[in-house]
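Continuing from the previous page...

OK, I double-checked the sequence for CTP synthase against my notes and this is the correct one:
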Amino acid sequence: MFKKCKYLFICGAIASGIGKGTINSSIGMLLKEYGYKVSFLKIDPYLNIDAGTMNPYEHGEVFVTGDGGEVDLDIGNYERFLDIELSFYHSLTSGKLYQKILQKEREGHYLGKTVQVIPHVVDEIKNWIKNLTTVPLKSDTNERPDILLIEVGGTVGDLESTCYYEAVRQMINEEGKENVGLIMLTYILTLNNEQKTKPAQNGIKDLRYTGLLADFIICRSENELQNPQRDKLAMFGNISKDSIFSVPNSQHIYDVPEVLQKQKLAERILEKFKLPIQQVPNIQQYTQFGQYLNDLQTSKPVTIGIMGKYMKNLDAYMSLIKALKEASYAIKVNLQLKYIDLIDFSSKQNAEEELEKECKQFDAILVPGGFGYNGFNLKIKCCQYARENKIPFLGICYGFQAAVVEYARNVLGVKDATTEELKDELIGSNFVVFMPEINPKLFGGNMRLGNHQTIIENKDSIAYQIYDSEVVEERHRHRYEVNPQKIQNLTENGLVFSGKDRKTGQRMEILELPNHLHPFFVGVQYHPEFTSKNFKPNPLFVSFVSAAANGEFRKSKIDVNYNNKKN
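Thanks. Re-ran it with the corrected sequence; updated structure tokens here:
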């Protein structure tokens, strides 16, 4: 018999994108430090089944879970902050919800009743939430969460969110107020140096219309929340002043846990849930980290160019950026990231020549994932420049495939080398092809997704030195692979495929150039950024940043630690 789980909801007011994911991650980390097991659910009210078909310009990156779920980027926030692994089921969309309900209706589950938002949709929401409390935190244990943190996407007052707030209201009545909590995150505007609470008051009013009052209100703002404004919010929110918390803008998201801890938010949450403090929290790694990052800024900068196509919304590369920065922090490198929008470059006259001039300023070049024709030939140019000028290079997913096509064109001399992904725009010799198990007519969920193992047989390879292991498990999201009929031609001409998928041994996963030809030229079919964690960066990024900083790959195992912080 498992003890009763507590439910902590967090919703947003005024606008989306004000930091619910970071706030929720920080709260989860603090509760964990107090000795409690926590898990998460992200609710997105949109009708897509998952995030897989959504435009990165509008919604940011598609994060991939170990079990192959294509989910909202906030799931990545939770995994990085708490060093945990979540699943497809820790992300709930209205699309998933209605798909399940309609399937039940087709199967006669409702016994002829009229299927309605209340009770059927709301009941399904509550069941989804409660079922997550029975899911083990790790596959090899029976540990269940003590507290489930549920983020409701969007903002209070959105029409599509109504059924979720009704589910919260019903759960408070059914589970008891001591078992269900609600946090509202809002933003305090500053106009003419005066903090304005009227928009936040309207958010409180919108929440009240759903039948709910927040137990705690967290205020984002440019500066610390002032007492008069705190008094106003307490009155309109019908809560005490000490239930209102201030999170002013800061230089690093790593400051947020300390900001909340100083105001004793986690203790107030435990008090509401009638839970004891089980241990003294230790958040020293966060409290000292801000100063550590400031110290790094005084050292010589190392510049890496990220050559992508979604640069108008950097959230499209959130996990990648976090992984690079975490790697640089770990090995004490003052990393500067320069974002190059290849679609913008495509419209320039002499685009390739202009791009080459841009590449000269970089200590290393990274070509990330992406889909489609736009910018592909410029990705090819980036790969060529890095290879020929011996600039440390990392290609991820589509960047891996671009490196293969570039090698075929410029080393093998196959000038029409291309990828089958571009079959409608560019006809040629396909060095990258659809995987046979993929249906090219489908899109959503129709990829090789989630954790897959890679075998590294050659212990002298760069890949083995990076991972120090013969078996690597990383997360994938792709439809295409290196054409098996072209592999021999590539390898006979110097390209090394040092990693192959464990299941068949036929699918290429890692490519590299030998050390005597290039200091660091590596491409991977998978997405290592999805397994990189705060304070535990993926070793591939550590090695890549090290190569950028030192001009060559350090063969000895790199010691990743934060023990030499300046206090």
